[in-house]
Amino acid sequence: MFNYNKQISIKNLDSEFSVLSQKVEELKLPKGFKQFLLYVLSELFVNIQEHSQAKGASISLRISSKGKFVLQISDNGIGLRESYLRTKVYPKDDFSAIQFALSGLSTKDFKERGFGLYTIKKFIGNLGGIMMIDSGKGRARVVKHSLDFIDLPIAKQGVEIVLKTKIKPVDFYKNIE
Predict the structure, then answer these.
(1) pTM for the full model?
(2) Backbone conformation region of residue 15, classed left if phi is above 0, alpha if psi is from -120 to 50, else beta
(3) Which domain range does residue 153 map to?
(4) What is the CATH number of the domain that holds 42?
(5) Which of 18, 135, 151, 156 is most buried, by the most CB atoms less than 10 A from its CB?
């Protein structure tokens, strides 16, 4: 039904977001799901621009005719832990940094809230999907509101986020923070 794969230079991130969001707008998706998808793309693109110090990003978005959605987005930046350390927030390891991000702690300013990943986690849980975040040597896997951590054998540069869920109607405003 829809398949999009692209390597993107950071300097082209805004224009690529415009292209991708226009393509998503044209899709026929259940009530609220299109809003969810546009919100996720917007938040993840902004996170890369504001926090990653990456030179490039990769995005893969697949929507199958069987109603399955898979989004994989990654950057080649500094990763979550280093991003926190640069704002004088000191996670003890990559798992702590991922947990900080999923709980809504911003990497811009420790006094601010970062609702992007927190809200995406909430949406995915309510949709019955899976969310995975890799950063450094840590992987977090969110399934139905439970969070598991897995050690990666090799440290991941930057951050990679994978979302998988069935496409179904969702009450967007009940999930948004």
Answers:
(1) 0.93
(2) alpha
(3) 2-170
(4) 3.30.565.10
(5) 135
